Fold these 2 entries.
Entry 1:
Amino acid sequence: RLYGIVEGGDLAYVEERVDADGGLVPHLSARLSRFVG
């Protein structure tokens, strides 16, 4: 899993999986925006 702060202060998330050759490939990604209630 990779996490990071991206442009605009949002949190980005990427989950990678191992393919048949043993390399990592992106599987799922999300960009989370801060919400103050």
Note: The mean pLDDT is 92.
Entry 2:
Amino acid sequence: VLAEDAIKAAIEDYRSKKSKA
């Protein structure tokens, strides 16, 4: 569960940064 949560957070952060750029 923790792993999935961490991955989800990482994906959201990646998309957020990509969207800003």
Note: The mean pLDDT is 91.
